[in-house]
Amino acid sequence: MASFRKRGYSWQYRIKYIDPATGKPKEKSKSGFRTKKEAQVEASEVEKMFYLQQHSVIANKETILKDWLNEWLEIYGSQCSERTLFNREFYINNHIIPTLGNYKLNQLTRLEYQKFINYLIGKGYAKKTVQTIHSIFCTSINKAVELEMISHNKYQGISIKVEEEEKINYLSRDEVGIFITAAKKSPYHHYMIASILLRTGMRKGEMLALKWDDINFENNEISITKTRSDQGVKKPKTKSSIRTIGIDNTLTSDLKQYQLWQKKNKMKYGADYFSSDFLVCGPNGKEMGEFGVNKTIEAILKKSKKDLPHISPHGLRHTHAIMLLESGADIKFVSEPLGHSTVNMTADVYVHITKKYETQNLLNLESYLS
């Protein structure tokens, strides 16, 4: 039963209860209410929680959001990949804590959180970035609910509406010709990076993880079994990403020339040559990383001196898939070398192309039946 008393100009409530964990009597009190009625309303809610045995919720009402986020990262960070942990730490420390960190865990309202999301949108962040920040925050809140620190996650279903211009991240057939011409005028290892990405459709990290042992010159094949980022080498996320893909004669010839180029450079640099285990490296043998690949594609685009779309290395993967589809390749044939887990995934990503050829196939059927 709650008791109330006036202290100076404000009211206080006091609730005595038995701690179910220890069986000992404890007391919960709070001051600062302007009226007795306000104190009674909150005391009633607290007593209700006690009745429902939500003692953890009561105990954590004063927890500051930034303290919980840091504790969550410390305790549960080891359960995710290095890349995921890096992203969580980055977005929490650079976006969530600076704006929301000083709120109490149970006092951040849905309205205030929606304002935070709107602020991110207003700053011009991409929809995917805002969704990532929201996902990280909700994951931490869900864990707090699981630990009975708060009663529920009130931030689910928040509106994230970002008006984005459709970004073109692939090259047309004519643009591919311009791009390859510029690549051939670039340093040889730049050309090879462009050629591998464009002719295989593999992911940037998959290319960075390639070793010469992964190339089967006799059968014109490349084995993709791992991925490499700035955080190191690891297995791909899905089983379907582990695959052996066929390559055309042009790429096989290019790779043989590239291997010879590396051997000549090894003799040229002598003791200053880096003996990297990886296939993709610079003239001095030093392995290249994600940033280096990004800058390579930017340099080739700039060298073209044409108005080409500003595509990323992943854009060459899209270009590869689109060229296959436009040449009449079956969706399943395209899906497997890309390492997609399902054909539906390929169809969803390239729906604008499959729709185009769905219409053409219907016209072909009509012509055949006529």
Automatic annotation (TrEMBL):
Domain Tyr recombinase spans what residues?
166-363
- Give the superkingdom in one word: Bacteria
Listed A to Z, the keywords are: DNA integration, DNA recombination, DNA-binding
- Pfam families, per the entry: Arm-DNA-bind_4, Phage_int_SAM_3, Phage_integrase
Identify the residues that the record assigns to the Core-binding (CB) domain, covering every copy: 63-145
User: InterPro entries per the record?
Assistant: AP2-like_int_N, CB, DNA_brk_join_enz, Integrase-like_cat_sf, Integrase_catalytic, Integrase_recombinase_N, Integrase_SAM-like_N, Tyrosine_recombinase_XerCD
Q: Name one GO biological process term.
A: DNA integration
Q: Give a GO molecular function annotation for the protein.
A: DNA binding
Q: Which PANTHER family match?
A: PHAGE INTEGRASE-RELATED, PROPHAGE INTEGRASE INTD-RELATED
Family of the protein in this entry? Belongs to the 'phage' integrase family.
**What is the name of this protein?**
Site-specific recombinase XerD
Native organism: Cytobacillus firmus
